[in-house]
Amino acid sequence: MAGEEESDKKKGFKVLGILDVQNTPCAREALLHGSGGSLAAGLLHFLATSRVKRSFDVGFAGFMLTTLGSWFYCRITNAQLRMQQRLIQDGIKNKVMYEGTSLDTVSKPKEQEPCPSCP
């Protein structure tokens, strides 16, 4: 029984049998934005022109453009975030490794200034 429950949880929801929405980053948000964009574009075009077929075409184009735009924006933002996290992790690792050594850039020992009255 426990094995069946785990396999059900890991399956997720697939769109067209290829895109696993639950496990793919940004997929859910992109599809939701796309459906909203298609509804808005198709409805506004229908209200403006009263042409059903053309409004469907505009709605479909709105879905594709909004979905792809949202997908690429989210993926680029996630990639930038991962790069920043990697830089911070490397910096923390270097800080821990070099702390207290002569290579430590933060807490270098101060050089003593020559005393003017000393010979």
Automatic annotation (TrEMBL):
GO biological process, one term: mitochondrial respiratory chain complex IV assembly
Keywords, in A-Z order: Membrane, Mitochondrion, Mitochondrion inner membrane, Transmembrane, Transmembrane helix
Spans traversing the lipid bilayer: 58-76
Keyword Transmembrane found: yes
UniProt-annotated location(s): Mitochondrion inner membrane
Family: Belongs to the COX20 family.
Name this polypeptide is given: Cytochrome c oxidase assembly protein COX20, mitochondrial
